[in-house]
């Protein structure tokens, strides 16, 4: 089956829950395990970035309320999305919540940072006081600060050194308690909730580390003689507690801002829809909110306005800029009967259109819903991070205990303080967040970038699988070719009875009465050439041969050589040209006027202008390209030669296409199938990656993993190249996330102290922890600047 299109078991349902309170990969892992273990759940995927859980479940065995309860039992909040919200409205609400979260984190980080600086300055007289003359200050960061700032601080603020140490200590205690209870409150509330549910996460590490430092400092404040009697300086770590909270909040704020930027493409789509539409009511144009437009309403769109809803043009003509939805750079001409898409921009003409699909059924809403679903999905490469995240926090807590015990036993000077500082640094520097963000941030940015290019990728698994492709199979009609016949060639007979313009006027008038697809192509060409078409008399269609009739008193025959043979018309003057057309995959159509051979038309489904270049790009990416079609071998070979394909499989029915995909997979190839029709849907679903062309049937798009909005094979090459670039980014993120913890935790534990005398302050550890998450998100954001 295709990478992401395997349907849930028959009878199952799906829903998406919002999950509140997740802050790291351990949180995500715990919620996901709880949901997957819940009765009746077929599958569950929890996304840290989007703050949601996508669940497939058996409604006979469980319910949305039971699933919410399963999440809440892990200590997190959960709820159902507002059913009245479409995907566009849901995204807007999510964006607003993200802005509120960022502003709150930023405010708390700034206030905590200011309080931390104040606490650090106030702590310096304490460390220089008489009580500390009997002990030793072991925090290397504070020692460095004291050495550098004590002389100028004493000169600038001599009064500070005259304040009673007891007053300073109790003042710091009060300030720290306020910061912990306000700015850092959520760390302790969530850590307590996790503890009550027999689990642990990043909040546990922060809460235990800062909580231990605070309690230690309280003891030093309340009973300093306990420390002095044992040869220890009664150091207080109030400034460390505040600065740790400040640095972590700062990292969270940067992370929230960066995460919002990862969804910039999705946010841009969600804001495209105009708020109002001009609707004809009782013959008068009035402005109404878009939500009040009803199916069948006549909507007027003036030049330069954004089209408010999907519809069909009733009157008028214009060129519509669809770049923001399809990536197509050139405006698309629109006339009566053409379909227009809401959120695109009208050109210089006024259009009157009938509203068709609205709300959640609109093209824009479906694209936003598809992108939200894709960005909530998980790439297989995430599984390694999930397994590590599941045991990460308990392992770190164990390492902190081992660190404390080791320092307490081995340290020669102030063992308790050194053990305490090192164990707190281990707790603070450990960061499961970076592992949890490594893959989802890349998926979010990549799917957004794909949408900007007119490539909708339906999930992380499809994104990863596309990078592994070795073979790409192309349907012919509507994929390599335009999918609609057109007149490609014209040859006038030597000494024929009519000129080119008259020939098209006569033939177009006759074929206007025909229902044959080739006839429609001839009529379109005649109209495009400015021919004035008239009614034909005595029209007759000859099955398998062509048509005959009279136009403006002139007898016409239009068809193949067999039709002309019936009327004893010699085709020899144009026989060579007819043979050449057939060799190139064109259908020869002879024209006879008043019994004399007048000309020869070549009609074919023309190759898309971009197909040859796109196929060359696919080959440059190292892919084998195969043309797979139900058309004749001669036509398929001609098209393949024109676009540079050497492997051709022709004359196959839909089941034959599936067998060919299976044959290629049996050879060990990773296969993508590109198609646009109902007959392509089985092959799209069977391929490792199914890619549906824009303008294709809904069935084909539904069966595919990737949808190309432009209807241009260039998008397939873009999808493969983007996938490979994204996978490289994911691997970089995971490497740095793992390397940070593998290197940082031993350094925090004091591994470098025996050789180099280096100890890591808990304050520096908190800054490093904040930087690790931000660096992973920043690396993912580089994908926004990627160009094919």
Salient structural properties:
single chain, 788 residues, alpha+beta, 7-stranded mixed sheet, 6-stranded antiparallel sheet, 29 helices, 26 strands, disordered N terminus
Low-confidence stretches are: 1-8, 130-138
Query: Strands of the largest sheet, in order across it?
Result: 14-26-25-24-15-22-23
Task: Give the class from helix and strand content and strand pairing.
Answer: alpha+beta
Question: What's the shape?
Answer: elongated
How many helices in DSSP terms?
Answer: 29
N-C termini distance: 28 Å
What is the CA-atom radius of gyration, in angstroms? 35 Å
Largest sheet: 7 strands, mixed
Please count the beta strands (DSSP E, at least 2 residues each): 26
Strand percentage: 15-25%
> What portion of residues is helical?
40-55%
Mean pLDDT over the residues: 81
How would you describe this structure to a colleague?
52% of the residues lie in helices and 17% in strands. It is an alpha+beta fold. It has a seven-stranded mixed sheet, sandwiched between helices. A six-stranded antiparallel sheet has the order 6-5-7-13-8-11, with no helix packed on it. Strands 16-21-20-19-18-17 form a six-stranded antiparallel sheet. The model is unreliable at 1-8 and 130-138 (pLDDT under 50).
List the helices and strands and how they pair.
Blueprint lengths: L12 E8 L4 H13 L3 E7 L4 E6 L6 H9 L4 E3 L7 H41 L12 H17 L8 H18 L2 H12 L5 H21 L1 H5 L9 H25 L1 H7 L5 E6 L2 E6 L8 E4 L9 E5 L2 E4 L1 H4 L5 E3 L4 E2 L4 E2 L4 E5 L7 H14 L5 H29 L4 H15 L2 H21 L2 E3 L2 H7 L4 E5 H5 L5 E7 L7 H12 L5 H12 L8 E6 L3 E6 L2 E6 L1 H6 L8 H9 L3 E7 L2 E9 L6 H10 L3 E5 L4 H11 L3 E3 L4 H13 L4 E5 L5 H6 L2 E5 L4 H6 L2 E3 L5 H36 L3 H4 L5 H20 L7
Parallel strand pairs: 15-22, 15-24, 22-23, 24-25, 25-26
Antiparallel strand pairs: 1-3, 1-4, 2-3, 5-6, 5-7, 7-13, 8-11, 8-13, 9-10, 9-12, 14-26, 16-21, 17-18, 18-19, 19-20, 20-21
Helix pairs in contact: 1-13, 3-4, 3-5, 3-9, 3-10, 5-7, 5-9, 6-7, 7-9, 7-14, 9-29, 12-15, 13-14, 13-15, 14-27, 14-29, 15-27, 15-29, 16-27, 18-19, 22-27, 27-29
């Amino acid at each position: 089956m295709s990478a992401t299109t395997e349907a849930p078991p028959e009878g199952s349902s799906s829903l998406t829950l919002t999950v509140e309170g997740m802050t790291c990969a351990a949180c995500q892992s715990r919620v996901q395990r709880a949901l997957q273990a819940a009765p009746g759940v077929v599958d569950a995927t929890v996304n840290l970035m989007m703050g949601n859980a996508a669940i497939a479940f058996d409604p006979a065995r469980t319910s949305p309320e039971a699933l919410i309860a399963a999440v809440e039992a892990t200590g997190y909040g959960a709820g159902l999305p507002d059913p009245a919200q479409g995907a566009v409205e849901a995204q807007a609400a999510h964006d607003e919540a993200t802005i509120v979260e960022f502003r709150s984190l930023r405010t708390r980080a700034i206030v905590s940072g200011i309080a931390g600086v104040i606490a650090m300055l106030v702590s310096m007289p304490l460390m220089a006081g008489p009580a500390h003359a009997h002990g030793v200050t072991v925090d290397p960061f504070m020692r460095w600060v004291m050495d550098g700032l004590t002389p100028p601080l004493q000169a600038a603020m001599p009064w500070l050194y005259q304040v009673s140490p007891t007053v300073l200590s109790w003042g710091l205690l009060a300030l720290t308690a306020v910061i912990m209870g306000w700015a850092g409150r959520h760390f302790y509330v969530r850590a307590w909730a996790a503890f009550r549910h027999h689990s642990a996460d990043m909040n546990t590490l922060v809460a235990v580390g800062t909580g231990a430092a605070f309690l230690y400092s309280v003891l030093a404040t309340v009973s300093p003689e306990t420390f002095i009697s044992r040869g220890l300086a009664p150091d207080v770590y109030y400034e460390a507690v505040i600065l740790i909270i400040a640095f972590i909040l700062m990292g969270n704020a940067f992370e929230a801002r960066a995460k919002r930027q990862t969804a910039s493409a999705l946010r841009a789509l969600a804001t495209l829809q105009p708020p109002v539409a001009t609707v004809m009511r009782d013959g008068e144009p009035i402005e109404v909110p878009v939500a009040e437009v009803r199916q069948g309403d006549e909507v007027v769109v003036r030049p330069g306005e954004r089209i408010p809803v999907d519809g069909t043009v009733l009157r008028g003509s214009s060129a519509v800029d669809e770049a923001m939805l399809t990536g197509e750079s050139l405006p698309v001409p629109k006339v009566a009967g053409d379909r227009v898409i809401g959120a695109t921009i009208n050109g210089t003409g006024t259009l009157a259109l009938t509203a068709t699909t609205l709300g959640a059924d609109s093209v824009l809403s479906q694209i936003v819903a598809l992108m939200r679903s894709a960005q909530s999905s998980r790439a297989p490469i995430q599984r390694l991070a999930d397994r590590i995240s599941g045991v990460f926090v308990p392992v770190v807590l164990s390492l902190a205990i081992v660190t404390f015990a080791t320092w307490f036993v081995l340290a020669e000077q102030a063992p308790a303080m050194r053990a305490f500082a090192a164990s707190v640094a281990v707790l603070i520097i450990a960061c499961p967040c970076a592992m949890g963000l490594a893959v989802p941030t890349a998926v979010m940015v990549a799917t957004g970038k794909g949408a900007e290019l007119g490539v909708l990728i339906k999930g992380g698994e499809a994104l990863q699988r596309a990078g592994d492709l070795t073979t790409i199979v192309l349907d012919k009609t509507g994929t390599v070719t335009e999918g609609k016949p057109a007149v490609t060639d014209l040859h006038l007979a030597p000494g024929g009875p009519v000129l080119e313009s008259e020939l098209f006027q006569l033939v177009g008038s006759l074929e206007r009465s025909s229902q044959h697809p080739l006839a429609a192509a001839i009529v379109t060409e005649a109209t495009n050439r400015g021919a004035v078409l008239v009614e034909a008399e005595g029209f007759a269609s000859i099955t398998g041969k062509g048509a005959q009739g009279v136009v403006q008193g002139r007898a016409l025959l239009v068809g193949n050589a067999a039709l002309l043979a019936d009327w004893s018309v010699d085709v020899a003057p144009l026989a060579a040209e007819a043979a050449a057309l057939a060799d190139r995959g064109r259908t020869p159509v002879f024209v006879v006027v008043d019994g004399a051979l007048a000309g020869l038309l070549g009609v074919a489904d023309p190759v898309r202008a971009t197909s040859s270049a796109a196929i060359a790009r696919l080959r440059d990416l190292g892919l084998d390209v195969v043309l797979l079609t139900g058309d004749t071998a001669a036509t398929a070979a001609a098209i393949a030669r024109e676009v540079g394909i050497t492997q051709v499989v022709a004359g196959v029915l839909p089941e034959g296409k599936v067998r060919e995909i299976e044959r290629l997979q049996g050879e060990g190839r990773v296969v993508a199938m590109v198609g646009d029709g109902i007959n392509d849907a089985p092959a799209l679903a069977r391929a490792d990656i199914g890619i549906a062309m824009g303008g294709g049937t809904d069935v084909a798009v539904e069966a595919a993993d990737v949808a190309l909005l432009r209807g241009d094979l260039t998008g397939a090459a873009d999808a493969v190249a983007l996938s490979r670039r994204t996978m490289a980014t994911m691997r970089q993120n995971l490497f740095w996330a793992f390397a940070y913890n593998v290197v940082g935790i031993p350094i925090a534990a004091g591994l470098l102290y025996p050789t180099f005398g280096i100890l890591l302050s808990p304050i520096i550890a908190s800054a490093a922890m904040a930087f690790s998450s931000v660096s992973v998100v920043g690396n993912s954001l580089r994908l926004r600047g990627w160009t094919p």
